[in-house]
User: Fold this.
Amino acid sequence: MTKKKILIHACCAPCLIAPYFHLQENGFHIYVFWYNHNIHPYTEYQKRLRSLQDFVKRENIPFILKDEYDLEKFLRRVAFREENRCNICYYDRLNYAAIVAKKGKFDAFTTTLLYSKFQQHKLIIEIANSISKKQGIPFYYQDFREYWKEGIALSKKYGMYRQQYCGCIYSERDRYLKT
Assistant:
């Protein structure tokens, strides 16, 4: 039996760790994909990327890197549409993951955004399903939130950098202002 080849968009190592091990247990051949142009500031982007690179190297996971820190592009896309910034951000990252998955002849794509209790789960699914149809590549859905506590414990055990906000400048602001 051939393992299904899946591309998982990873926002960070702590959100990847538990879903990765569970997908692996379920017989998937996993490739990790990094594209997170929204993360602010650049030092935060570097910390998250470095932590993810350390984990994929440690576990010998195939890794695809789109190392584009394009804060200006992200801000131009969301300016005056701040209330829809997550829609835009999810779309940009998942669309690129789907493009990479299709070009790489993957069986499906998914995302670690489905792990976080703080993300807009239904919106992610809606956007991913729409992109799946548009790009012609299946979206693999699994509610990774069930592994929330396990992922926290594993990320601490592995000594991963654990960020305190989603990533964009707005979520960093909200973290302090509690809006």
The mean pLDDT is 95. The radius of gyration is 15 Å.
